[in-house]
Every structure is written in structure tokens, then in C-alpha cells.
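name: query_chain
kind: protein
chains: 1
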Amino acid sequence: MTAELATHQLDNLQADLHALREQRISNHAFSAAARGHAVLLAALPPRYGEVLLGLLDRLEAGALFTEESCSFSHQALVDQLQQWADKARAALVAQNS
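structure:
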């Protein structure tokens, strides 16, 4: 059951990430939703949580910029979040095999 819930939460995070990429949700809304996926984070090795929280902190700080800048690239950060999600999915699959 926990593995199924973790996968479900990852699916939700992926859907939210897609909405973030299309700017249908705000950085803060995405971050709040991602931080709420406690079962997912508990199912992954601790480093995954550390990396995700760091990315979310950067995303929230980047909300201060309205456009791409030298110090912040929204697209690059979304790409890094996608990489995290891909690696998290692979880790979950490996654990459940």
C-alpha cells in the first residue's frame, strides 16, 4: 500500500510539474504541493528529500524574478525538477522489483 501511495504521489507531483512548466500553477503552489508528499519522500533514500527541498527552496526564491535572469532560470529549474522526478520514479521501481 505504501509503495502504491508513493507512486501515486509521484504521479501527482509529475502532473503538477507539467502544470508548472505551462505556468498554470505558481511556483509557491507547486512547492507547497511537493512538500506535502510525505509518503513519497519517506519511500525514497534520504538524499532525494534533501535534493528536492533544495530545488523547492530555489524555486520559491526565484519567484521574486519575473523573467529569466543571470541568477535564475525558471526553465532550468523546472528541468532539474523533472530530472529529480525521473530518478525518483526509477528508484521506486527498483525498490519494488
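note: The longest helix spans residues 74-95.
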